Automatic annotation (TrEMBL):
CDD domains: HTH_LacI, PBP1_LacI_sugar_binding-like. Residues 5-59 form the HTH lacI-type domain. The lineage of its organism: Bacteria, Pseudomonadati, Bacteroidota, Sphingobacteriia, Sphingobacteriales. PANTHER family: HTH-TYPE TRANSCRIPTIONAL REGULATOR GALS, LACI-RELATED TRANSCRIPTIONAL REPRESSOR. It holds the Pfam family Peripla_BP_3. Keywords: DNA-binding, Transcription, Transcription regulation. SMART domains: HTH_LACI. GO terms for molecular function: DNA-binding transcription factor activity; transcription cis-regulatory region binding. This is LacI family transcriptional regulator. SUPFAM superfamilies: lambda repressor-like DNA-binding domains, Periplasmic binding protein-like I. Coiled coil: none annotated.
Length: 342
């Protein structure tokens, strides 16, 4: 059976202090040649190998980066993680992935765990419930490398990678309007997230451009981002029970978009005959839905790559990084049958 020996084991066997053994193994000139010979021969005899974790702590580098996302099962984030790993591993870094499940409490616990694992930096996409970002502010003020992607903390001056959320929502809404829909509802995550705010602004701007009203009753938030299916169901049922229900829905994240379809069908509504649907999702099966879904697709893989490149550059910078960039990527609107007027 394989046995792993430590410096303490060598020190105990040779009746030496651990510091003497450590210096002898490192070839220190402070240690006499006889002692050095004794330690090295014994280390060779027991096949001693340095502990890489202990070495990384000594160097204060673990060659690992921590990732904080809402959930890996989310198509968008799974693609972003593939992008993260493609750059990280080629740059000599391991990736430790954590999931918040849209909980601020779990996000904080994840960050603390990653820090205890001595990660060299963090890639963060905030949870839907995160309002207090003080842990990131404190880390950033100490020079700890952080890059936000997709869901960013706007007031912390660090590198960010985002998409053009305003433009994406504007184009998706305008496509519904040009297909003949006039009563368009907006299904979004919590307004805590900057992406929710920007997408709503783009949505409203498209309605205003075409002179369409937007009753308050057509606006619904799912504060857990669609993780709780009841939230989506309550929103859709509420709309369809209105005296003048919407004839189209724009949803703003992966879970909300794909979650609407089975709920509408279960309630007996046909897409797009009764209500059209367009939304943000990177689901690879969006075109296999019945009907195929009109979607805003984000460059998730590229976003993960860019965020990781910025993080590695920050970690490996010889001097403190004081100039930060916000990279803005464009989205792709793919129009399919779910938003074509019957």
């Amino acid at each position: 059976m394989f046995q792993s020996y430590t410096i303490k084991d060598i020190a105990k066997a040779l009746n030496l202090s651990t510091s003497t053994v450590s210096r002898a193994l490192n070839g220190s000139h402070e240690i006499g040649s006889e002692t050095k010979k004794l330690v090295l021969e014994y280390a060779e005899k027991i096949n001693y190998r340095p502990n890489p974790i202990a070495l990384s702590l000594k160097e204060q580098k673990s060659h690992s980066i921590g990732v904080v996302v809402c959930e890996v099962a989310n198509n968008y984030f799974s693609q972003a993680i593939n992008g993260i790993e493609s750059i990280a591993y080629n740059s000599g870094y391991h990736v430790i992935i954590t999931q918040t499940h849209e909980s601020a409490e779990r996000e904080l616990a994840n960050v603390q765990h990653l820090l205890s694992r001595q990660v060299d930096g963090l890639l963060v996409s905030l949870s839907a419930q995160t309002v207090d970002t003080s842990v990131y502010e404190q880390l950033h003020s100490k020079g700890f490398p952080i890059v936000f992607f997709d869901r960013v903390a706007q007031h912390i001056p660090t590198h960010r990678v985002v998409v053009n959320n305003f433009d994406a929502a504007f184009k998706a809404t305008e496509s519904l309007i040009k297909s003949g829909f006039k009563r368009i509802a907006h299904l979004t995550s919590t307004s805590n997230l900057m992406i929710s705010q920007e997408r709503f602004k783009g949505f409203k701007a498209a309605l205003e451009k075409h002179g369409l009203d937007f009753p308050e009753t057509y606006f619904r938030q799912c504060n857990h981002g669609g993780v709780l299916k009841d939230e989506i169901e309550q929103a859709v049922e509420g709309w369809m029970n209105l005296p003048s229900p919407p004839d189209a829905i724009l949803s703003t994240n992966d879970r909300l978009t794909t979650g609407c379809v089975p709920i509408l069908k279960r309630l007996g509504y046909k897409i797009p005959d009764d209500v059209a649907l367009a939304g943000f999702t990177n689901s690879d099966v969006a075109e296999l839905f019945d009907p195929p879904l009109t979607v805003v697709r984000q460059p998730a893989f590229q976003m993960g790559q860019m965020a990781t490149e910025l993080l590695v550059k920050t970690i490996e910078s010889k001097k403190a990084v004081e100039t930060y960039t916000t990279e803005v990527l464009e989205t792709e609107l793919i129009c399919r049958e779910s938003s074509v007027h019957a």
